[in-house]
């Protein structure tokens, strides 16, 4: 394969070579895989999945149901080591990817540096050290950066001989109808990663209305399993590809007084529009707020079905979001079904890496022009 270098040192390859590289794709294992958002995105980018692991039974069952040809185990990552992985893997992975549980880093609630979950990335590091893949990809919520963990994490992998860069990515800049930000670490034994180029800007962000506007209308407590209109834009068409019915499109039941209260909130509005006699007695300033149909969602949370959650009321319907609407806002296609009770499904959606963001990362990593 012909390889040349530009004056800047970046590797340049022929168009044919680039195409062949994308066709083959690197192999990977996914640690802390959850329901499989990152794996799904990487596979869409042409990567080869070898193994996935998570200690959350519902999430692994969802992973297996949607990617039955992938080897996925429900297992504590502390139990994994090189000999066991050698027994289950068909080859040594080119990459180790994943994201340790984020609650210890999250900007929501009280954060503690001593939280044991803040050290789970060291288990990720241990497996990287034992397998010595060519590269690793580690992601987490932005709260990790806010606590100045980024250099601690980077240093931990540089000590293993990896060139490590970290980036803050906004999901909306990569085609996800959500403004959630993630901190991403990419390390490689031989090369330096230059980052991911945004495909969208504020003028072209996918909005909430564009993402979920074709789904059947529901009142509180209703559900639907059939589409009742045609897709209206490319995003909806992509989400509905190979899907013949809806899963998870069920609205939570709300008491009548709550439905009346939120009926006063306009598209994109907040609780200030609720009359005094209907004002909820509890909640934060951004509780009982509607999503804006003309903008991306702020962030999808496990409380997406509760009007008292953080900006999770449907833009025009008087209810919280359904699991399927949350999945759309995370860029999961409708053919991706979530297993478990509704609270578990919503948590799986909220905790996942948006598949479109995973795909953007996967495509950038296999692009020779993104390295030097």
From TrEMBL:
It comes from the Bacteria. GO terms for biological process: DNA restriction-modification system; methylation; negative regulation of gene expression via chromosomal CpG island methylation. It holds the Pfam family DNA_methylase. It catalyses: a 2'-deoxycytidine in DNA + S-adenosyl-L-methionine = a 5-methyl-2'-deoxycytidine in DNA + S-adenosyl-L-homocysteine + H(+). It is an enzyme of class 2 (transferase). InterPro entries: C5-Methyltransferase, C5_DNA_meth_AS, C5_MeTfrase, SAM-dependent_MTases_sf. One of its GO terms (molecular function) is DNA binding. Its EC number is 2.1.1.37. The keyword S-adenosyl-L-methionine applies. The active site is at 102. Belongs to the class I-like SAM-binding methyltransferase superfamily. C5-methyltransferase family. This is Cytosine-specific methyltransferase.
């Amino acid at each position: 394969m012909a390889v040349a270098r530009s004056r800047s040192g970046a590797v340049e390859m022929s168009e044919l070579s680039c195409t062949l590289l994308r066709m083959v794709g690197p192999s990977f294992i996914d640690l802390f895989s959850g329901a499989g958002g990152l794996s799904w995105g990487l596979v869409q980018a042409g990567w080869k999945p070898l193994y996935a692991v998570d200690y959350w039974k519902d999430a692994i069952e969802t992973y297996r149901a949607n990617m039955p040809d992938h080897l996925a185990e429900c297992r504590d990552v502390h139990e994994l080591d090189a000999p066991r992985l050698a027994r289950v893997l068909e080859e040594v992975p080119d990459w180790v990817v994943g994201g340790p549980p984020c609650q210890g880093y999250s900007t929501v609630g009280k954060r503690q540096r001593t939280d044991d979950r803040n050290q789970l990335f060291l288990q990720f590091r241990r497996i990287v050290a034992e397998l010595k893949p060519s590269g690793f990809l580690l992601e987490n919520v932005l709260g990790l950066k806010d606590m100045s963990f980024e250099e601690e994490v980077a240093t931990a992998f540089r000590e293993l001989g990896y060139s490590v860069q970290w980036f803050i990515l906004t999901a909306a800049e990569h085609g996800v109808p959500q403004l959630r930000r993630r901190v991403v670490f990419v390390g490689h034994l031989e090369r330096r990663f230059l980052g991911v180029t945004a495909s969208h800007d504020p003028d072209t962000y996918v909005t909430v209305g564009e993402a979920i506007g074709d789904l059947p209308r529901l009142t509180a407590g209703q559900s639907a399993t059939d589409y009742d209109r045609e897709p209206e834009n490319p995003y909806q068409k992509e989400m509905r590809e190979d899907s013949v019915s809806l899963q998870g499109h069920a609205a939570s039941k709300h008491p009548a007084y709550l439905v009346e209260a939120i009926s006063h909130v306009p598209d994109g509005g907040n609780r200030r529009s609720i009359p005094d006699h209907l004002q909820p007695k509890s909640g934060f300033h951004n509780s009982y707020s509607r999503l804006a149909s003309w903008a991306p969602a702020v962030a999808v949370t496990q409380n997406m079905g509760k009007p008292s959650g953080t900006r999770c009321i449907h833009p025009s319907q008087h209810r919280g979001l359904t699991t399927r609407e949350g999945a759309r806002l995370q860029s999961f296609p409708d053919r991706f079904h979530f297993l478990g009770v509704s609270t578990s499904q919503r948590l799986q959606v909220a905790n996942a890496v948006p598949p479109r963001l995973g795909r953007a990362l996967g495509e950038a990593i296999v692009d020779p022009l993104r390295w030097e």
